[in-house]
Amino acid sequence: MRSDGLTACVFSGGASERMGRDKALLSHPSGGLWLPTLVDHLRALQLPVLVVSRHQSHQALLHGRPQVQVMLESPPWQGPLRALERVLAVDSGYPLLVAPVDMPLLTPAVLQQLIDDWQTDPQRVAVADDGERLQPLLGIYPSGAPFQPLLRQQLQQDDRRWLRWLDRIPHQTVRLPAAALRNVNAPADLAALEA
Fold it and tell me: Which residue segment(s) compose the domain that 177 sits in?
């Protein structure tokens, strides 16, 4: 484990309703599949990786990879902020680099840039910015107070809006290349990516 205690957390548990098939199992532009490619990018940065998923197939797909753990989410599945609440530690000192499986153009260099910027002020969230909007599912989230208590409080009010929580916690934005943050959610997005 890295000396800064950083762990990567990949969110790969969505229903992929807009895509119509499991995005984690789509063919990656560099070969392989989306989920193992992202996991290997994170492992290349010497990060232990936790994959949060509802899909048993993801556990089988990643079986045998060192420093990789799959946490199978039990229902009810209520989106990524609820998933984060399940893994974000109550105690401080356990920051998570959170990444979604549906940003297939992320590279180790871009992920390292996010880490480098976060390390300048590790008491704040570092959230990716593509130049037009924040991409809160790609960021580094410290644990403990005030992050975890405010997250739990918001979810107790049945408010699962990530940006609402982000507005309440100390954070900085990290400008990253927009192309690398391309979110691929639907068949049209996939066709554009493949073109």
Answer: 7-194
